[in-house]
Write a structure and sequence with these properties.
15% strand; alpha+beta; 22 helices; Integrase_cat-core; elongated; five-stranded antiparallel beta sheet; six-stranded antiparallel beta sheet; Transposase-like_Mu_C; 624 residues; Mu transposase C-terminal domain-containing protein; RNaseH-like_sf
């Protein structure tokens, strides 16, 4: 009984070892045939597939013998796999031919075809069929009979390790900055190889090593990481917006066109701030200014976007301009410029339920919609006289300032017309519809009723909260702002105090001072002065821009310079005279200490003229 128990225990241990060894996909020998384990079944046993004919059979574990694959076999499989997938010299036709030959070998081994029939089916002679059949390995498949191409594998390097190291070093060291060139890299390689006693590689060899570096890294080395990200970085994410006014983007740019002043003299390139609604692609609002981007530009563009443009359209006096888009947005998306992160802008947005969202740093494509919109309108600007074009190559030798023909008001009218045209143009992202059509669709209920865009309950307070802010010290004459005095009864008792006020850049005739939660109008003292905007204040005549005390004629400047020179000369003369007096005083003091003080003459009474009492007195007159 003990012997039987020991034998059974040994059998059980062998079965456990067999179970531990057998795995899916493993090669085994079953009834003298090379097979592959497909799956396991508790009742039927192990399902195996014959590698020669593809037939399936069930076998018990004790009927299977594992095939031990040597390291040499593993290395062969690895090399054949690389040859099949990675070697660029292997063509798709060669892979197809190897697959057809494998099918013929399987049919021959399963006795479906004779040797001659199998050879003829793939266009081979019997002797060639036999030679290739010897190379065929069922465990490797068609890869084992692939014709190995002749010649060097692509990417094979024949240069020495020292030369390769020099090339890599010179590429990393000298291909840096916008002025980097491949020719300079080669010259550095030539110098270092010559001084090191190495053979200089050819330009073609250096060029091949250079272009093996990924394009992203080459662009980063020459133009910087930001340029590389924008050129070669993946931008697969997209923003989906379901309703109008849910998501709005804002940004600035300098207009690629010069404008003229009132005297038709070239002035400058204006700035423009634009807002786009991502759902409808409409230009929700914009603001054109002569000042660089600031909190003023943001506030004015936002106010223009939230309220109807009725007043502006009346000023243009063009009935063909249609602009019905406005409303209070839920999210305003911007870059990380300081004007978008100002406390006044953020506080005003949050107070009215607008969520200010900033782009991730260094990710311009997150603002792709507004960037593309600005690019579209700048493309239209390039057709105007006075356009700077997109670069100096397109501009050529033409001076855009001399070619300019529009003053600021004329450019604003042209831009308003261009916006109206854009709203009526089919948009690819809107599936062929126009921005106006999508806006009207979103502003209409399913029943056909119009929806009014949301606006603030107190438009005046909303606009003033976003208007730019400034501060001044109240003088006895009032508040001095833009060379004008402003006064109101509410300023009584605030003399010598610093007050913070709002102002409308479109109309500088009044200021707005917030007291006890309400804005009070501080009107201009000169009631006869014409209304003026901030742009007009900047464009005013040169003589009006001069401050009090400005000297005009050259003669007066010469007189001022002569006075300056006289001041210097008189100071020198006075200094010399002072030194001489001090020297004389010291000399007299030393002399008196030796010879004594000078003699003082005796005092004598002055002669007194006697008055004649009989003298006739003369009466004084005014003529005397």
């Amino acid at each position: 009984m003990v012997l039987i128990y020991s034998v059974n225990r040994a059998e059980l241990q062998a079965e456990e070892e067999m179970r531990e060894i057998l795995q899916k996909g493993q090669l085994v020998v079953f009834e003298g045939k090379r097979c592959k384990i497909v799956s396991f079944d508790k009742t039927k046993g192990v399902l195996v597939q014959d590698r020669s004919d593809g037939s399936f059979s069930y076998a018990s574990p004790e009927q299977l013998t594992t095939v031990e694959e040597s390291n040499k076999t593993d290395e062969l499989k690895k090399n054949l796999h690389a040859l099949w997938f990675d070697d660029s010299r292997v063509t798709p036709e060669q892979r197809t031919l190897a697959s057809k030959r494998e099918t013929a070998f399987i049919a021959y081994r399963s006795k479906e075809l004779s040797r001659v029939e199998a050879a003829l089916s793939v266009g081979m002679s019997v002797s060639q069929f036999n030679r290739v059949l010897k190379k065929y390995r069922p465990e490797c498949g068609a890869i084992s009979i692939l014709a190995i191409p002749r010649g060097r594998k692509k990417g094979t390097r024949l240069l020495s390790g020292e030369v390769e190291a020099v090339i890599d070093f010179c590429i990393q060291k000298y291909y840096q900055g916008t002025g980097a060139t491949l020719e300079n890299v080669y010259q550095q390689v030539d110098t270092k190889c010559t001084l090191s006693g190495l053979s200089t590689p050819s330009r073609n060899a250096v060029s091949k090593r250079f272009y093996e570096i990924p394009a992203f890294d080459r662009c980063r080395m020459k133009w910087g990481l930001e340029k590389a990200k924008q050129t070669y970085g993946m931008k697969t994410r997209s923003k989906k917006v379901l309703h109008a006014l849910d998501f709005v983007q804002i940004d600035h740019t300098m207009v690629d066109c010069f404008i003229l002043d009132d005297a038709r003299v070239p002035l400058m390139r204006p700035w423009i701030t634009m807002l786009i609604d991502l759902r409808t692609r409409v230009v929700l609002g914009y603001y054109i200014s002569l000042c660089p981007p600031s909190a003023i530009s943001c506030a004015m563009a936002l106010v223009n976007a939230v309220f109807p443009k009725t007043k502006a359209l009346l000023a243009f006096n063009d009935p063909d301009i249609l602009y019905i888009c406005y409303g209070l947005m839920k999210v305003i998306h911007s870059d990380n410029a300081s004007e978008f992160k100002s406390e006044i802008f953020e506080a005003a947005c949050i107070a009215y339920g607008i969520d200010p969202v900033l782009r991730p740093l260094g990710a311009k494509h997150f603002g792709g919609h507004i960037e593309r919109l600005i690019g579209t309108f700048m493309g239209k600007v390039h057709f105007l006289r006075g356009s700077t074009q997109s670069n100096v190559v397109k501009r050529g030798e033409i001076d855009p300032a001399i070619q300019a023909t529009r003053v600021l008001e004329e450019f604003e009218l042209w831009f308003a017309r261009s916006v109206s045209i854009y709203h009526d143009t089919e948009h690819r992202a809107l599936e062929g519809r126009t921005p106006f059509e999508v806006w009207i669709e979103d502003m209409t209920t399913p029943g056909g009723q119009d929806i009014m865009p949301p606006t603030p309950a107190d438009p005046r307070t909303f606009a003033l909260d976003f208007y730019p802010e400034d501060h001044r010290v109240v003088s006895p004459k009032g508040i001095l702002f833009k060379e004008k005095y402003y006064d109101d009864q509410i300023l009584r008792g605030m003399t010598r105090e610093t007050v913070y006020f709002k102002y409308d850049p479109r109309d500088l005739s009044r200021l707005f001072l917030k007291v006890n939660g309400f804005y009070h109008d501080i009107v201009q003292c000169d009631l006869m002065a014409p209304p003026m905007s901030e742009n007009q204040y900047i464009l005013r005549a040169p003589e009006k821009r001069r401050k009090s005390g400005t000297v005009r004629s050259e003669r007066s400047h010469r007189l001022r310079e002569k006075n300056n020179e006289q001041d210097i000369e008189t100071a020198k003369e006075t200094k010399r005279a002072r030194k001489k007096r001090n020297a004389d005083a010291k000399h007299a003091q030393k002399t008196q200490s030796i010879i004594g003080p000078p003699a003082v003459p005796d005092a004598s009474d002055p002669a007194v003229k006697e008055i004649d009492p009989t003298r006739q007195r003369r009466k004084l007159r005014w003529e005397d």
